[in-house]
From TrEMBL, chains B, C:
Phylogenetic placement of the source organism: Bacteria, Pseudomonadati, Pseudomonadota, Alphaproteobacteria, Hyphomicrobiales
Protein name listed in UniProt: ABC transporter ATP-binding protein
Organism: Aminobacter carboxidus
Listed PROSITE patterns: ABC_TRANSPORTER_1, ABC_TRANSPORTER_2
GO CC aspect terms: ATP-binding cassette (ABC) transporter complex, substrate-binding subunit-containing
Keywords of the record: ATP-binding, Nucleotide-binding, Sugar transport, Transport
UniProtKB/TrEMBL annotation, chain D:
Species: Aminobacter carboxidus
Domain ABC transmembrane type-1: 110-302
Pfam family of the protein (one): BPD_transp_1
Record-stated family: Belongs to the binding-protein-dependent transport system permease family.
PANTHER family according to UniProt: ABC TRANSPORTER PERMEASE PROTEIN (PTHR43879), GLUCOSE IMPORT SYSTEM PERMEASE PROTEIN GLCU (PTHR43879:SF1)
Annotated TM spans: 42-63, 116-136, 145-166, 178-201, 222-247, 283-301
Localization of this protein: Cell membrane
High-level lineage: Bacteria, Pseudomonadati, Pseudomonadota, Alphaproteobacteria, Hyphomicrobiales
Chief location: membrane
InterPro entries for the chain: MetI-like, MetI-like_sf
Protein name per its UniProtKB record: Carbohydrate ABC transporter permease
Keyword Transferase included in the entry's annotation: no
From TrEMBL, chain E:
CDD domains: TM_PBP2
Organism: Aminobacter carboxidus
Lineage of the organism: Bacteria, Pseudomonadati, Pseudomonadota, Alphaproteobacteria, Hyphomicrobiales
Family that this chain belongs to: Belongs to the binding-protein-dependent transport system permease family.
InterPro entries found in the cross-reference section: ABC_transporter_permease (IPR051393), MetI-like (IPR000515), MetI-like_sf (IPR035906)
Coiled-coil annotated spans: none
Superkingdom per UniProt: Bacteria
Topology with respect to the bilayer: Multi-pass membrane protein
Protein name: Glucose/mannose transport system permease protein
Record Gene3D superfamilies: MetI-like (1.10.3720.10)
Amino acid sequence: TDLEVTHWWTSGGEAAAVAELAKAFDATGNKWVDGAIAGSGDIARPIMIGRITGGDPMGATQFNHGRQAEELVQAGLMRDFTELAEKEGWTKLIHPKSLLDGCTLDGKIYCVPVNIHSQQWLWLSNKAFADAGVAVPKNWDEFVAAAPALEKAGIVPLAIGQQPWQTTLAFQVILVALAGPETFQKVFGDKDATLAAGPELAKVFAAADQARNMSAKSNVQEWNQATSMVISGKAGGQIMGDWAQGEFQVAGQVAGKDYTCLPGLGVNEIISTGGDAFYFPKQTDPEKAKAQEALASVMLSPATQVAFNLKKGSLPVRGDVDLNAANDCMKKGLEILAKGNIIPAPDQLMSADGVTQINDLFVEFFANKELSAEDAQKRFAEIIAAAD
Amino acid sequence: MTSVVVKDVSLSFGAYDVLKQLNLDVPEGEFLVLLGPSGCGKSTLLNCIAGLLDVSDGQIFIKGKNVTWEEPKDRGIGMVFQSYALYPQMTVEGNLSFGLKTAGMARDEISTRVARASEILQIEPLLKRKPAALSGGQRQRVAIGRALVRDVDVFLFDEPLSNLDAKLRSELRVEIKRLHQKLANTMIYVTHDQIEAMTLADRIAVMKGGVIQQLDAPQVIYNKPVNRFVAGFLGSPGMNFLDGEVEGGAVPAFGIAGTKIPLDRYGFDHVAAPGKAVLGIRPEHVALGDAASTMPFSAEIGVELVEPMGSDTLVWTKLGGQSFAFRVEAERHISRGDRLCIGFDPARASLFDGQSGKRI
Amino acid sequence: MTSVVVKDVSLSFGAYDVLKQLNLDVPEGEFLVLLGPSGCGKSTLLNCIAGLLDVSDGQIFIKGKNVTWEEPKDRGIGMVFQSYALYPQMTVEGNLSFGLKTAGMARDEISTRVARASEILQIEPLLKRKPAALSGGQRQRVAIGRALVRDVDVFLFDEPLSNLDAKLRSELRVEIKRLHQKLANTMIYVTHDQIEAMTLADRIAVMKGGVIQQLDAPQVIYNKPVNRFVAGFLGSPGMNFLDGEVEGGAVPAFGIAGTKIPLDRYGFDHVAAPGKAVLGIRPEHVALGDAASTMPFSAEIGVELVEPMGSDTLVWTKLGGQSFAFRVEAERHISRGDRLCIGFDPARASLFDGQSGKRI
Amino acid sequence: MVEQVFRAVPDMAAVAPATSRASGLVGPSGPRPRRTFSRRNIFIYGTLFVVAIYYLLPLYVMVVTSLKGMPEIRLGNIFSPPVEITFEPWVKAWSTACTGLNCDGLSRGFWNSVRITVPSVFLSIAIASVNGYALANWRFKGAEIFFTVLVVGAFIPYQVMLYPVVIVLREIGLYGSLWGLVLVHTIFGMPILTLLFRNYFASLPEELFKAARVDGAGFWTIYLRIMLPMSLPIFVVAVILQVTGIWNDFLFGVVYTKPDTYPMTVQLNNIVNAVQGVKEYNVNMAATLLTGLVPLVIYFVSGKLFVRGIAAGAVKG
Amino acid sequence: MTPMHAGRPFRLFRNLNAKIASIPMILTALVIFVGGTAWTVFYSFTNSKLLPRASFVGFDQYERLWATPRWLVAVENLAIYGVCTLVFSLVIGFLLAALMDQKIRFENTFRTIFLYPFALSFIVTGLAWQWILNPNFGIQQVVRNLGWESFTFDPLYNADIVIYGILIAGLWQGTGLIMCLMLAGLRGIDGDIWKAARVDGIPTWKTYVFIVIPMMRPVLVTTLVIIASGIVKVYDLVVAQTSGGPGIASEVPAKYVYNYMFLAQNLGQGFAASTMMLLSVVIVVVPWAYLEFGGKRRHG
Ligand SMILES: Nc1ncnc2c1ncn2[C@@H]1O[C@H](COP(=O)(O)OP(=O)(O)OP(=O)(O)O)[C@@H](O)[C@H]1O
Ligand SMILES: Nc1ncnc2c1ncn2[C@@H]1O[C@H](COP(=O)(O)OP(=O)(O)OP(=O)(O)O)[C@@H](O)[C@H]1O
Ligand SMILES: [Mg+2]
Ligand SMILES: [Mg+2]
């Protein structure tokens, strides 16, 4: 049966990963109809939601699991997979458990997590630092210290794309690294506005200010263009989730040799366990419904998990798969995961509305030098206070 | 038998009343001309009769049948428009037969009718041409033909000649008159050209502001206009109007600036009440020289301006300080500054009330 | 002294020659009318004189100065357009003074001139209004005023009255004539209305196809047209044309379908060569009844159609099988089918060559 | 400006009296002499030329870039003509550029665009012309009110209407289908087209319409037999406006279709935004040009008719 | 006459065909425009998130809207962009039309050149200009390569002037049509006016400024409507050129609406912004539309 699957994985590494899912699904005798929407989740999500609410749902669709699809589930537009989950024992398979929590509403499971993405990575170009004649930094402070040397060598110290979510990501990563996971949880999870306005966050904002100065010359839009600057040595580093690794792989670079990764900016080795999940809008055609189940199972099968996540540069959602093929960075991630140094992803903590407002703030902050760190913090606190 | 009856018809566009409780009876076979200045509602009335405008009030009968709410095509009328309104993309033949085809008439019946109409109007050689390839006069003939083939009882003409030049206009005028004599249909003809009205009409209805001022035979309207408006509207050069006062007494007279015009020979409509009045006299009713002195009224005047018009000449002077024109034959040599004796017969004049403008 | 001289002027639009080696002398103070059918090049000639079109060849002199290459504003002309061409967003006063202001004239001089022009044209009360708030006649007056304030030697009018209705037209005609008498400027006036031409002109130039056919005083043109075109163009109702043959012999005569009209009293331009010819006689030169029998030629005819025109009546008949109209006074009661005796004096007729149409 | 140019004329006349013909005319004669390189002409043509360059520049850059290889582009001068002309980017843009797993470039979008554009243009023009005709000739009570609403609707940003339209389409079960999109284009094309047609039909002589009614023709007969044959100019304008508008539409195309029915603009956006490694500017430009080709050709072919039709339908109010 | 209104048909059925034929228009007007608008306004008073829900929060959404820097930037940008587009489109369009009206040669060629951008979508326009204005490849780099090292022209990357960078592309796309409209208007002016002005000795520029332009009112109105309706809708161009960046410097209201409705999944906020846009449209357009279509009637 043909099943249309929409997603926004169109960069090189992502496309290669999707191909693995498609291959696995096609092998079940069904057919993966690819519905890629380029740009980013920001462009794709409205279209997906429009399709679902408009009564022409696709077979399956990617969302960042968390609260993005919450209302669609509440409105009864999504298929309940509890039965299948119980049959296949997802609760046991999936590790960490919080992943499945993101898919659960009122005790029912509505989505299939396919990978774990962590945001807290600093990717460094070994070549850039060699060109600038400084050692590859081991943590954020060293990185900041090395920035002037990079600049002198005509290298942009920090590459950040102009898409709003990238700026927010950079901020959040800095926050977790410098202020610790509890603060993160309190600010984003508990919406603690006092804390958000407090001195601890001021430190973070000051660091973000530094980051923005270091990234002033990176005139790129997409995250993978920023990554490509790092790959080519035009930029010293990039704060980006582990999906950036896919790009390094496509470019044939080897972790440790060509590039270096610092989880938690080398300060606080903690990763967030967000990720992508697939939701299955309710279908009238029983054939399609069967295909949906097939897809759900195949997505969680160990083989697919390995193949997919290797290409994508993300971590598998089951703890029981063998990832010998994984590279350095991935292994670092797995270790941290195993240690349980994890925090939930911001998408799971905050509604899209709040996320958008924060995106708006940081994209402005990173582009507009006139917006001081103090003012930005004040506005940040206000948003946190009003967020739900 | 009456052919068209308009009964108490009113029509307004929004708050603006164009026709006001208008009544009109047209006997069968009559050539009725609606004459009036621009904007007086002539076309509106014609459109009401044709069914192209919905009346606000009143009724319309054609051949005794109440057609107030009928579609135009069911009223038994044919209409000819000022701009010809030929269908530009069809040949002349197509133009003539369009209505018949629409009505689903049989082929050979259509061709018989088209042949007949084009013979009457002598447009046979044009049948295969498109309107763009016709001269103004030919177009107008085709437009008439289109009404003709419909074989209707009543023809409506809305200023059919006013887009043509003077020469063609007078030619086609004669043709229309001949056509009426041949067909003997009822025809209602709108124009604001008084010459057309005079030459064509059995009766003329002079309209102003949506009201019929006078409805009568052309000569009556010309010679005995019921009010000053009608008097002024007909005739070119127009009637001379002299402002003055009717003086009662044994011999009623009309006084202007020292001059007195006796009115004993004037046929008063009703008893003359003294007061402000206007005396109207047509330029061609003014006699000159010897003939003038035999007239009941005569005066000596100075010539101000001479307008030779070819066939005759118009002479402008002042009478009692007011502008006054009269017509003489073209042979007469008169020039500016001449002093002449003129005279006229008040019996041929018209006298209007100073206030209401009504004929006294 | 000549005011405007047009010397050998030609003008073509692409391959199409509108004016062909045209010559024209206008003496100072003359009122010259250019008369001709639509498209004959009247406006084109006027525009050449005004400098609004570049001549293809030839020269133009105004007041003895060669202005062929001058800008319109430097030619000492004022022009009045058919569509008035008033500047719609300016008041009447603005319209009158805009040109003067642009020329940098002193304020008080401007107001003097505007005051004078508006007094002459009696548009003082309108000075503050915009053109949209004026009637047609008032607009035309303002348009004339705009030419007037320029204080020029030559006025050019391009069909200034043809957008007005008949009544207004005859009124303004008189005003223009008066204006000319007052100012005594040279005026060149384009029209295709022969009545206007007859009444206004000192001389008329009748044009056809870019060539002046005849240039003479109105009466001469009316009574002695040089060719059939001119004869037919002037006069309404038009001249009657009878096709026939000139027969030589002791007493030359004109033969149509059995009837012979003696031509001994006709003033031949040159010796009559026998052959096909056309006899033209104006409807008002035909006598009726007793008067007819005293005429050199008379005949009995049957009345086909009667057109009462108010002031007089047009009667259509056939003479020698050809359509023939004549004019009688309105009082005469004639109806269709009557048989009458008519007659005319061939001395007042015009005879044209059958081929060339030239007067014989 | 004009004035100054002509003021130079008398001097010229002084030197060139000999130009007058043998007929013995003395002094200026014949047409005014005009220099080809008068200041006026230099100003006019100079300005037009400069402006024309501004208008042509992007097209030039797009064409040139699309014919270069990536190495050449990285060298940097966007204005320099290609050293080595390559049609690779065009081929790639048309048939092999990838979005996600689909690597068939714009070709698929092209046929989708055709399948969307043709019925949309047809339907929207058919409906709008009948509306315009009804408004201009068969005025009935209230018609003007609806029309005013419609015209005000032309100003409403489409984003505002996206959601309500989703609901409407869902309710009538057309969401996601080709016909749903056709309907959306018809709806949003209606205000401006109706305005155009109404103005145009109102400028046709009303007597023609009356004559046809007297001849017994009804609403549809008059429309089909009398009005349509006379409306070529406005139909040309409408077709051009709609074809370009619908062909170029992105928002509706992306919101109301699904991947197999994506129009070309959406494919274009996908190709341009689905960056794999470095941005392939040459492919992007080729894709851009390919997408714009259809409307461009239409404009180049029928620009003259367009201008004439605009004069007939838009200017009269 | 006994039956005074005999045969008078039921009002609704007169011109029945015309009414039937107008149903699509009426439906569009009522359901889509009126209905959609009312629906939007209604839900702008709720706190609908991803799906519309009738839970009212009064004017909260509006208060939040006007406290949001992004919205304020968007409104300011729209004002700048609108005024500039209006002024420059009219001025450039008119100047070009006036030049084209000088009986020039190659008129068709020039007209085609000026008009062709109109055939391209905003997406295409945006991409082309993004490429030309890109500091690393475009004009800036070309000039620098020529030796002027300090030359800086990167409007799309400079938050202060980014809106003008968008304007350049917008004008490029739209002025051709304006020129065509103006040209049609110029050609529609009675030739006698020009002649009268020449006889009066009025210089060309003065004739244009004082006489011709005031006479072109109807064309100007049409043009204004076309430009204005384009301004309010500006969206694709911004998305294609800058995606609202750098930062939020080139945000426009339409984009704000779209983003909040679909990205932020805060329909209420999006609807509130829509309603503000609608309000401004209504304030400008309704009086005009009433005058133009509602008030007076055509002569018949
Ligand atoms: N559709 C309409 N809406 C409003 N007013 C109208 C309409 N049609 C005509 N009128 C007005 O009604 C009046 C009469 O118009 P009508 O066309 O009947 O005049 P008319 O006597 O035929 O004039 P003309 O000689 O100029 O044709 C005019 O004042 C006109 O302005
Ligand atoms: N700009 C032009 N280009 C080409 N032909 C022209 C132009 N202007 C006028 N003509 C042609 O020149 C001829 C003379 O035109 P002109 O306007 O002088 O006629 P007219 O005698 O004034 O006619 P009317 O009485 O209709 O005003 C006409 O056949 C016309 O078609
Ligand atoms: Mg009328
Ligand atoms: Mg003329």
